[in-house]
Design brief:
4 domains, four-stranded mixed β-sheet, 12 strands, about 40% helix, globular, isomerase activity, isomerase, Fatty acid cis/trans isomerase, Fatty_acid_cis-trans_isomerase
């Protein structure tokens, strides 16, 4: 009988529960009786006001140096991005951005793009870290997540030189709980050591006092002072140039935008101090409104998606976020740049009869969308700034995560095909192969895997077979030689690049840096363009698992193509030998791709080799051809310190493996701090496995590269020595055999994340970084700091 009554009233019970749930979501607030109803506040003040000056000069530097070093960009814990007032006001979210298993694409949550104001962020599930209730000093603290967490750390500082206990999980993939204001007290009671800065020493007393008073007073914030007339004039000049009405200029502007939209643009004439922290930066955005009116930013997942307006305008929007090393991509705008763009896209004699559409089949294929622009112009635009071009792959959203990055080796050199070699035949190849140069972006953000991979593989095979005819032609014409390699037109230091992978992050440098690597790439225009569109323009960090896996699998094709281009300059038997070495223990499908009919090893190189090590000989020839253009300020020199550190480049088996992926060594030398980066390059039998990289590891092939200055954005360790103890440090690293040995190394020379002097050391590193590398320096990221 009781069961019958329950079933009889079940619909009413559901209705009642639904109603309660609705009240719980929209009305019930357990903190409202204590602190009042929650609603976003207007915290922005004029930068010239006393509150604005206080924020910019006293508060913001503390937030940058102590908070943004963990909370910046897409990989910020809980999406709590503290690099701008908008990010601070937006707060945190329980949703995960980097999710390689999501079945369907998620809604993007890009700061400055996907919501107009804090009210919209609240509707998207973000909760505040600042008090949004009754505005009194007491409530401003009691109802502030930011205050609760920094206060908790003051009570549990955990500042010793020893390692953290295991109840403080670390690493990018540790489960972040992201408590809301309602959950925070219970969370901190259960996790008393999880105060902020998380897993790092507490704020200094004076820093804590500044932030506490600022929070108590309502957490007013300000953007940088308004632009002065010289900047406004430059913005107007560039916006006029990018928004002319003729079709040639419109197509040019679209191409430029799709290739530099991630850039930090600055005016060389106005920012002559060459200091990344003091410059005024801009970003190029698509707007529904023309120059002279407020920007109405077009919100799309990708830079080439349908804008939904009749006319797109390209506008310069001021960048208000902190400069982070992991996302900083400086790009100059000056008269020379404008003339260069004109010479590439406006002055050549070609006609644009109509503009390309935005349907995915066209927009996701740059060879189709921009077919009217001469390929040599497109190639030069990317090539002459090749570090910036490749940096998009390194510093864009795709940069974070092993699945995205285990498609490349830990250390390799990059060369480029000369754009003046056989441009007519290259144009012919591209024009006849546009359908075979398709990219995964055509399938957008909700993509399947198996069917698409088969289609992409078949298209790549057809393209390579046709490309082989061009390679054979070059061989027959005695042009498959060193002339094929771009020499930077004898002046451009973008002629060669070095890429380092640090497991789940990466770095690109100009020049040939470090020891001779296992592999090298030779990149031509179609390959460079596809890398950009695959890993930058079309990559959606919010896409589903199919989109992300397709990106990874397609990049396998491009990596092999770049390696194959390089090998084509070597003798046929040497090519086979190196392929076998680079793809040891590969899956059968990969072997068939590498060694099958798609790659012809019989094309004759036109380079004469005289040694038994043709690869080394070829790279030596390249270095001789390029002269100083292939050198790098990061390479060790003949100085006394450098000669001593060079010993670390050749260590016994085992020692390199115990070292972290990236560590920063600082040496007190004659009153100055000399900075070096120690990189562990991990050996692999192959890199064709999507998920099981450990099974391909060859620790006996690990080696260290020591670079001058800072290489990379994510230090895993800090070491600090005086010059007179450098040999002791070198000996300690050279004799590493066990984890206990590394523990002793850190005891003597390390600045662990628990060290009471950690923040003072961090500040010195950042200051020296800015002095040594003013053009590219930014805030380092501490999410990968080890606990060893």
């Amino acid at each position: 009988m009781r069961s019958f009554k329950l079933s009889l009233h079940w619909p009413w019970l559901l209705f009642l529960l639904a109603g309660c749930a609705g009240v719980g979501i929209t009305q019930y607030d357990p903190l409202s009786e204590l602190y009042g109803q929650a609603a976003p506040k207007n915290r922005m003040v004029e930068p010239e006001s006393s509150a604005g000056q206080h924020y910019l000069s006293e508060v913001e530097p503390i937030i940058e140096q102590r908070c943004v070093v963990c909370h910046g960009c897409y990989d910020a814990p809980c999406q709590l991005k503290l690099s701008s007032p908008e990010g601070i006001d937006r707060g945190a979210s329980k949703d995960v951005v980097y999710d390689g298993t999501r079945i369907l694409a998620s809604d993007p949550t890009r700061l400055g793009i996907d919501a107009e104001n804090t009210f919209e962020w609240r509707r998207m599930g973000f909760h505040p870290i600042l008090n949004e209730r009754t505005q009194t000093p007491a409530v401003n603290l009691q109802a502030s997540l930011m205050y609760q967490f920094i206060s908790q750390k003051q009570q549990q500082p955990a500042t010793t030189a020893e390692r953290l206990s295991n109840d403080i999980p670390l690493g990018l993939n540790h489960p972040a709980q992201c408590p809301s204001p309602v959950e925070s007290q219970d969370y901190l009671t259960e996790n008393p050591k999880h105060g902020m800065p998380y897993g790092l020493p507490a704020l200094a007393n004076e820093e804590y006092t500044v932030l506490t008073q600022w929070l108590a007073n309502g957490a007013n914030m300000a953007n940088q002072p308004k632009l002065t007339s010289p900047y406004l004039d430059k913005v107007a000049e560039w916006e006029t140039f990018l928004n002319q009405d003729d079709l040639k200029h419109q197509l040019m502007a679209r191409y430029v935008y799709e290739h530099i939209y991630l850039a930090h643009l600055y005016f060389t004439e106005l920012d002559s101090n060459n200091n990344s922290k003091q410059r005024t930066y801009f970003k190029l955005v698509r707007s529904a409104t023309p120059p002279g009116s407020p920007i109405n930013r077009i919100k799309t997942r990708r830079p080439y998606d349908d804008p939904g307006v009749q006319r797109v305008y390209y506008r310069l929007q001021r960048e208000d976020e902190s400069i982070l090393a992991k996302t900083h991509m400086p790009y100059t705008l000056d008269a020379e740049r404008m003339n260069w763009i004109k010479s590439l896209f406006i002055e050549p004699n070609y006609t644009v009869a109509s503009l390309p559409g935005y349907e995915p089949k066209v927009a996701a294929n740059p060879f189709e969308a921009f077919k009217d622009i001469p390929s040599q112009s497109r190639y030069r635009f990317m090539l002459e700034e090749s570090q910036f071009t490749i940096m998009g792959f390194i510093k864009g959203p795709v940069c974070r995560g092993q699945i995205a990055l285990n498609v490349i080796d830990d250390h390799f050199w990059v060369l480029f095909i000369d754009p003046d070699i056989n441009p007519e035949n290259l144009d012919k190849l591209i024009n006849t192969q546009r359908e075979n140069l398709i990219l995964p972006g055509e399938k957008q953000s909700n993509a399947g895997v198996i069917k698409n991979w088969v289609a992409f593989s078949a298209a790549q095979n057809k393209y390579l077979k046709n490309k082989l005819q061009l390679i054979k032609y070059l061989s027959e014409q005695e042009k498959l030689n060193l002339d094929l390699i771009w020499d930077g037109d004898r002046t451009n230091d973008n002629a060669t690049l070095t890429i380092f992978r640090h497991f789940d992050s990466s770095t690109v440098l100009k020049g040939l840096v470090g020891q001779e690597p296992k592999t090298a790439w030779l990149i031509d225009y179609p390959l460079l363009e596809r890398i950009h569109y695959l890993l930058v323009a079309e990559y959606d960090v919010f896409g589903n698992v199919g989109h992300q896996v397709n990106t990874r699998l397609y990049m396998d094709f491009l990596r092999m193509e770049g390696e194959g281009n390089f090998l084509s300059l070597l003798p046929a038997e040497e090519r086979k030998k190196l392929w076998r070495h680079w793809y040891r223990n590969s899956q059968q499908e990969v072997k068939e791709f590498v060694f099958g009919p798609r790659v012809n090893f019989d094309v004759k190189t036109n380079i004469e080799f005289t040694t038994e090590s043709p690869k080394t000989e070829l790279l030596n020839m390249v270095q001789a051809k390029l002269g100083t253009l292939q050198t790098s300020p990061h390479n060790l020199t003949d100085s006394a310190l450098d000669r001593r550190l060079a010993k670390l480049k050749q260590l016994p088996i085992g020692a390199p493996t115990l070292m972290p992926e990236m560590g920063i060594l600082s040496i007190e030398n004659e009153g100055k701090l000399a900075l070096y980066t120690i990189l562990r390059n991990s050996g692999h039998s192959n890199i064709d496995s999507l998920l099981f990289e450990d099974s391909n590891r060859l620790p006996e092939e690990d080696y260290l590269t020591i670079n001058k200055g800072i290489t990379g954005s994510y230090p895993a360790a800090y070491w600090h020595v005086s010059a007179d103890k450098l040999d002791q440090f070198i000996h300690a690293v050279s004799t590493l055999q066990t984890e206990s040995d590394y523990d002793q190394l850190m005891d003597e020379f390390g600045i662990r994340r628990t060290n009471p002097d950690f923040w003072a050391h961090s500040d010195r590193i950042h200051q020296q970084y800015l002095e040594d590398q003013p053009d590219t320096a930014g805030l380092l990221d501490y999410n990968r700091l080890e606990n060893r």
